[in-house]
Specification:
About 15% of the residues lie in helices and about 25% in strands. The chain is an alpha+beta fold and about 110 residues long. Strands 1, 2, 3 and 4 form a four-stranded antiparallel β-sheet that branches. A hairpin with a 5-residue loop joins strand 3 and strand 4.
Amino acid sequence: GVVSAVYPAYEGRSPVGIDLFADPDRREDAIKARDTKTLVLSRPYPLANGYLGIAARYPVYIIGEDGRDRFWGLSVAVLRMDKLVELSGQPAPGVLTTRQFSPYAGAPAN
């Protein structure tokens, strides 16, 4: 569960070396993705480079010599919240809050 590679090169502090299964901001989602074998979208959390972001974590399994699935790791796509809001086409900056993007907040408010 330790981040070993990042592409493209990371702006600011790199997340390489972060243990997703030990970090309190990432642990629950990493475990859920691994155990359910499904894509898990995180709540907004502070990224290694200081921005607020969300992560989509997808578990990768390989077939072992015994023919059974073996957890290999996670493929993760990270989205900065400021860029996501900018790309959303909202008419006024700051109108859309990060809580409105939370998977626990329900549908975005008008």
